[in-house]
Specification:
By secondary structure, this protein is an alpha+beta fold. 54% of the residues lie in helices and 11% in strands.
Length: 299
């Protein structure tokens, strides 16, 4: 079994830096770097990816706090509504997912992106499991997710005042995230239809989280399920929807600056295609005339 330990922290003048925050910061930096590299490999504009990541991260933190406050700690929030503005007090992972999606949608609308938005989302989603691993490592050192009492060899020997030996689901999920990373690496070995990577990774994670939440002891439950489990069901269905529509998206997946000629790489098995590098800001709205002037192709 794993001995209990307190979360490391460092005092820097009036500030206290916790290990959780350090690990989350490492995850964000690593994820951003990998999304940038993936964008280059896919022929995308890494500057567009970087700007989208900013909105995804900001939306993620805001959504994480709002969902935690409203669904996991409603009583405390009702007693102290100002708590909603204190985004450093309590976060929810699925709230982070929802906020990240809202942030991405805002960026897409603001930039008036077309179908190529799915390629940028795939680049970021592909990198996300690597960042998530460090985030869950942060949860494990902070012991944020105590589970049921257990004599499993990965259980943590919490002191009696904290319930005794029991599972630490931060550790369990961090280890299971390695499977998520393996799925991402496997998907990234060849070109895929736009949205396909995002859809598959969503369907891989959702069952993992749904099952693990049965082992949690502190989470509020609604009709027997945690908010995270309801969100996991929604995420799984959303992932299936994306996968189903990915083939039709592939037919309109050209990024402006790319041609529909033989230089576009396709994957006949998955309906996938890798776009050529786009340098345009409003890629989805541009039109290109063929040299023969016979018509227009909508990108």
């Amino acid at each position: 079994m794993i001995p209990y330990f307190t979360q490391p922290k460092w005092e820097l003048g009036p500030f206290t830096i916790h290990a959780f925050g350090v690990l989350v910061a490492i995850g964000i930096l690593l994820g951003t770097h990998l999304a940038d590299r993936r964008s280059v490999k896919m022929g995308l504009d890494p500057n567009v990816t970087a700007r989208m990541v900013i909105w995804v991260v900001l939306g993620g933190f805001i959504g994480a706090h709002l969902v935690e406050s409203l669904f996991y700690s409603p009583r405390q929030t009702w007693q102290d509504p100002i708590r909603l503005l204190k985004i450093w007090q309590g976060i929810s992972s699925f709230g982070g997912f929802l906020g990240a999606i809202v942030g991405a949608l805002w960026f897409i609308k603001r930039e008036r992106m077309g179908v190529e938005r799915w390629h940028y989302l795939d680049a970021i989603t592909w990198a996300f499991p690597f960042a998530w691993f460090f985030g869950r490592c942060g949860c494990s050192v902070a012991h944020d997710h105590k589970g049921i009492a257990s004599d499993f060899f990965l259980a943590v020997k919490f002191p009696p005042s904290m319930g005794g030996t029991r599972l630490d689901l931060g550790i369990i999920e961090a280890l299971l995230t390695l499977l998520w990373i393996a799925s991402s690496l496997l998907l990234g070995r060849k070109s895929r239809a736009p949205g396909y990577i995002s859809g598959v990774l969503a369907t891989v994670y959702a069952p993992i989280r749904f099952g693990l939440d049965f082992l949690r002891t502190d989470d509020r439950r609604y009709m027997g399920l945690t908010p995270g489990q309801y969100a996991a069901i929604g995420l799984f269905l959303f992932g299936l929807w994306i996968i189903y529509h990915s083939r039709s998206l592939a037919e309109h997946a050209l990024v402006p600056g790319a041609s529909s000629g033989p230089e576009e790489r396709s994957d006949s098995k998955t309906g996938g295609s890798e776009p050529q590098r786009s340098h345009g800001k409003h890629a989805g709205r541009q039109k290109a005339r063929s040299k023969s002037g016979k018509g227009k192709r909508r990108h």
